[in-house]
Amino acid sequence: MNTFGNIFKVSIFGESHGQGLGVVVDSCPSGIELCEDDFLEDLQRRKSGAKGTTPRQEDDLPEILSGVFCGKTTGAPIAILFRNNNTKSKDYSQLFDHPRPGHADFVARVKYGGFNDYTGGGHFSGRLTLGLVAAGVIAKKILNPVKIEAKILEIGGTTDLNKAIELAQQTKDSIGGILECKASGLPIGLGEPFFLSVESAISSIVFSIPAVKGIEFGAGFNVAKMTGSFNNDCIIDSKGTTETNNAGGINGGISNGNDIVFKIAVKPTPSVSLPQETYNIKDKRVEELIITGRHDLCIALRVPPVLEAATAIALADLSLIAQSVKRVF
Amino acid sequence: MNTFGNIFKVSIFGESHGQGLGVVVDSCPSGIELCEDDFLEDLQRRKSGAKGTTPRQEDDLPEILSGVFCGKTTGAPIAILFRNNNTKSKDYSQLFDHPRPGHADFVARVKYGGFNDYTGGGHFSGRLTLGLVAAGVIAKKILNPVKIEAKILEIGGTTDLNKAIELAQQTKDSIGGILECKASGLPIGLGEPFFLSVESAISSIVFSIPAVKGIEFGAGFNVAKMTGSFNNDCIIDSKGTTETNNAGGINGGISNGNDIVFKIAVKPTPSVSLPQETYNIKDKRVEELIITGRHDLCIALRVPPVLEAATAIALADLSLIAQSVKRVF
Amino acid sequence: MNTFGNIFKVSIFGESHGQGLGVVVDSCPSGIELCEDDFLEDLQRRKSGAKGTTPRQEDDLPEILSGVFCGKTTGAPIAILFRNNNTKSKDYSQLFDHPRPGHADFVARVKYGGFNDYTGGGHFSGRLTLGLVAAGVIAKKILNPVKIEAKILEIGGTTDLNKAIELAQQTKDSIGGILECKASGLPIGLGEPFFLSVESAISSIVFSIPAVKGIEFGAGFNVAKMTGSFNNDCIIDSKGTTETNNAGGINGGISNGNDIVFKIAVKPTPSVSLPQETYNIKDKRVEELIITGRHDLCIALRVPPVLEAATAIALADLSLIAQSVKRVF
Amino acid sequence: MNTFGNIFKVSIFGESHGQGLGVVVDSCPSGIELCEDDFLEDLQRRKSGAKGTTPRQEDDLPEILSGVFCGKTTGAPIAILFRNNNTKSKDYSQLFDHPRPGHADFVARVKYGGFNDYTGGGHFSGRLTLGLVAAGVIAKKILNPVKIEAKILEIGGTTDLNKAIELAQQTKDSIGGILECKASGLPIGLGEPFFLSVESAISSIVFSIPAVKGIEFGAGFNVAKMTGSFNNDCIIDSKGTTETNNAGGINGGISNGNDIVFKIAVKPTPSVSLPQETYNIKDKRVEELIITGRHDLCIALRVPPVLEAATAIALADLSLIAQSVKRVF
Fold it and tell me: Can you tell me the distance from the alpha carbon of D117 to that of A70, in angstroms, rounded to the nearest whole number?
């Protein structure tokens, strides 16, 4: 089930160490300016290289295979391909019988009867989010002038990000983080009862991003401690502006015109340089595993552009759906 | 978009104060014993009447309209109808121009051009979860012997539930809560990359339940503070049993055979007996609103059977999908 | 898979001899006038009673369960229920082991492991088209002022319909027919490449109508004998009007603004009063079967309103899809 | 809507004269042997070059981008890319204002606001069927040992195919044809009521093949002239074998274990060398158009492998669906 969306459909394919990976975006309206350069900023933001990220360097250059003609979208599916080139499959050869803790290695092996591509995580690799970022660039254009911004609130339990990374480097361990995403400028009325609430659509795609383990909208888990009279956001004008925004811009699953705001929790990269224990499937015993491949110390650092993209994709789909049933009354 | 699921499809219809409400369940395997009595236990658990819940009393008796023959499912769609009888529409007449804070009143009015049924929340009412509970009973039968249990961890910020309710009664306010849901006995391999992770499927349907504002799997938001070596769950046997369960039974979006565990945050009922302020759409000014209808002090108290049902529906759909592509190797 | 449509979703449920049957229509725009009387004309046209149709008489009175408030659609799902009352299940008791030739009895028994409701054809009964007709009435309102008309071209191989029926009555046999359906006033641009051509959408739903065995658009099978220069429809004005309409109003799968025209073949009712041979599943031998239930001599006579409804549903869905991706350039 | 299927999902992208075109196949079971050579036979059969087909020569070499590892399917999406190389876009420059009769030129221009890629038909080109053929090769492997065979029954109104082509060459015109497709060895029980009958699934995808204008199953349009007692296929053994096969292997929309047989009508290639009239959009008048590009005299000649592929895709999807809800009783 590698397709997301009801109208604005985004299909992902590829593996970490195969020929490449990519995305097909269907039902994008025609006439939108689009070229390969448009993708570079968000791809660059997603890239590794900064402190705390993997030393694996990929060009990550997108090739638009279809759906664009004379610099504009045609209405036909937009296929975008990223070639892999910097792959080191030998790093992974021992992993077939030694599933890495916290990764999909073991479940993928069982689910696919051992036929899954396990090199570099295969189809479960975080590299697949390249396709998501590319589709997000298109989604943002559809949503224009809506503004979507994700930022890191904390990593390793602190807002001092530098310090947290240094500590992780010293301890050869990895750390998680919390991000916030905000979408401003949306109209009232996105989201559909009963099963396609804004929260449903966003959480559904956000939990496709590897390593995300929690999501909360507006006041989130804090609502459990609030009283109704405190939590309720008072409407103060005819546009639906609310005094507070505990609802995170969503009532009854429908956007209320205020900022859509939510937070997510990203777990620490499961690959760490410290020795770990795992089950040796062949020899049938628990034994030590040392992961030697390249990996991020804090995957959360690379999530912001992916989170924005995922949010944009969900909102673009909801926008097209809302438009489809609109009548002039 | 009132249908959930890819194969096991659940379609919801109805309003709080209309003729009734119900659900159509498609692609249920044939030959499963099913009668109206099977629904009563979970419907009873969902019912109001306990301390802290609304005094509105409905029979909530399900009528199976189709899909069952000689006491067993036939493979055809199962339609289940609940008639409304205890409706008091006069309670709601003032609300057309006075959208209740925290409810869908305002967004529904804008989204549907004023044609939405606003009495009792209409299609946005929590009463719609009756259909979810009914579909969940069927889903549980498909998943049998998997065991799904939801419980309340805290309300109003405390584990002393009685005390919290009494306080809310005294202050004429409402309170939220946190619930935990656990599914035991699932096979390895449910969930599909890239967009139908177990977390995606469950969160998507769980955020359809009115008042849910957050969800976290396993260690959830706490993962943000953990190191990778601590958070990783060590696999200790050939069945994939892990020593800890910080992952909440899910790796790479796929069930790993351990308990699936997640928590949700439920906001306080937006309807409170205290006076509130809202925008008078007709007179174009902020003014006081007093809500006189019947409502729950703590909607979280009624969520456990709904949460179980939602979880069962998502897992039943994932089970049928997993079965569809299975081969004997 | 009892749901049709991508946005305008129509879900069917029910059986011939059960509690009843019905339909849930999702994503109908709000603000459309709708009441139970609106369904009566098309339901009446579908009804039996005329010469050549079954003597089974049902009220076929629709009950709108949801989605309508103050006489207008609300945007929420519209559920419509038809109760069965004139059922004679004893007529069918012998059929469990004697699958009727030309019916779904045998395949349903195998597919559902013997748990299918076989009385009156169960979920495979032509009675299910009641739900289709009801949904079609709503679809027609969405498409308004598009005009959709189906008519019978011939039955039993002749355009003299009276004569054909009389002959069938005399021979105690049943006869088939050919119908034409025309939709006028559609805009250019309905239908989506690659898999949702107008022909794909219409044929897909039309082949859901029991007894349909062929469909052809425009010149249809005759195109196989034509040359390109003869078959091509010359465009003669800026609105895309064509001189001829061999394409049946569709180019490249997209509506071209001319009438959409297609023909279907309806097989003779498989139930006939003549003795037939079938396989006795229990006794494992071929033996004579006499069908004593009530049935139509020529089911084609009752298909026109069903065919219109199916066409309207497919076109309404295509219209909403086309609207969803439309931009002002 | 460039995706077909409910579980076995096939997504098409690309244009005739762009970078290339391809297909993404989702939910293919893992462990199936697959390499690029496997596609060559069917691609070769689809290729032009024979008498009556276009002189445009393309390598049509597939590149498997993902979903295959160590020579076997992994369970992840299989993306297949075909590069275009032999494109002559200059042939098409005049067509922007001169929509070719019988093509999608005019409707595409209106639908996409003039932003569609019109060179070589763009996304509407018959070249897109390359992706269908590739997906069909995978589908056939899933269906193995089911045998699917399409053949040409007649072209230009005659079974003497050579003579028909020669006549068309002489007259500089194009001709249509009729094909038959047969699937043997299918189990009983494929197809789902109410909207996913075998006829619905097959016709839906078959009408995605450019130039198809009619389809009929079994006795097809001839059923309209038959009596029920003649048309009914008598079941003669416990496997459901029928004496005749007027139903084309399908009862009530469900496969009955006999051969699935259907015929389609393919229109003559709309591009002909003869001068034609069309509307000049810019100058607003009807004028003569001479099409100088390369094209097939009889597109029907190239349809058999495409028709087999489409049929295989539809049946593979139905097979996975049937498997998903199967229980051991």
Answer: 8
CATH code, domain with A137: 3.60.150.10
Backbone angles phi, psi at C162, to 5 degrees: -60, -45
Residue of D nearest to A74 (CA): D116
- Count Cα atoms within 13 angstroms, Cβ side, for B263: 20
Count, residues in chain B: 329
Tokens of A212: 């995300």
Residue B329 lies in a domain: no
| pLDDT tens for each residue of C162-172 | 999 999 999 99
- Identify the pLDDT of residue D312: 98
Domain for residue A329, yes or no?
A: no
Q: What are phi and psi of D144, to 5 degrees?
A: -45, 130
**Strand, helix or coil for residue C4:** strand
Phi-psi region of C218 (alpha: psi -120 to 50; beta: other; left: phi over 0): left
Tell me how far apart the alpha carbons of residues D250 and C267 are, in angstroms, rounded to a whole number.
13
User: Does residue D329 fall inside a structural domain?
Assistant: no
Measuring CA to CA, how many Å separate A173 from each of A47, A99, C85?
21, 18, 71
HEC-encoded secondary structure of chain B = CCEECCCCEEEEEECCCCCEEEEEEECCCCCCECCCHHHHHHHHHHCCCCCCCCCCCCCCCEEECCCEECCEECCCCEEEEEECCCCCHHHHHHHHCCCCCCCCHHHHHHHCCCCCCCHHHHHHCHHHHHHHHHHHHHHHHHHCCCEEEEEEEEECCECCHHHHHHHHHHHCCCECEEEEEEEECCCCCCCECCCECHHHHHHHHHCCCCCEEEEEECCHHHHHHCEHHHHCCCECCCCCCECCCCCCCEECCEECCCCEEEEEEECCCCCCCCCEEEEECCCCEEEEECCCCCCCCCHHHHCHHHHHHHHHHHHHHHHHHHHHCCCCC
- Provide the domain count of chain B: 1
Domain extent at residue A218: 3-324
Inter-chain CB pairs, B–D, below 8 Å? 50
Q: Which of A31, A63, A123 lies nearest to residue D76, judging by beta carbons?
A: A123
* Residue A253 forms part of a structural domain: yes
List chain B residues with CB under 8 Å of A254.
104, 107-108, 111
CB A297 within 8 A of CB A267: no
Distance of CA D263 to the CA centre of its chain: 13
Q: Which residue of B106, B175, B194 is the best one to mutate when testing the A interface, meaning the one whose CB has the most A CBs within 10 A?
A: B194
- pLDDT tens for A99-153 read 999 999 999 999 999 999 999 899 999 999 999 999 999 999 999 999 999 999 9
For residue C72, give the 3-state DSSP assignment: strand
Kindly report the pTM of this predicted structure: 0.97
Answer for the pair B309, B42: CB distance below 8 angstroms, yes or no.
yes
Determine the Cα–Cα distance for residues A201 and A178; give it in Å rounded to an integer.
20
Q: How many CB atoms lie within 10 A of CB A239?
A: 12
| Gap between the Cα atoms of D15 and C13, Å rounded | 41
3-state secondary structure of D112: coil
Instruction: Choose the closest CB to A102 out of B113, B251, B254.
Output: B251
* CA-based radius of gyration for chain C: 21
Q: Pick C323's closest partner by Cβ from A32, A192, A324.
A: A324
Q: Looking at residues B101-109, what average pLDDT do you find?
A: 95
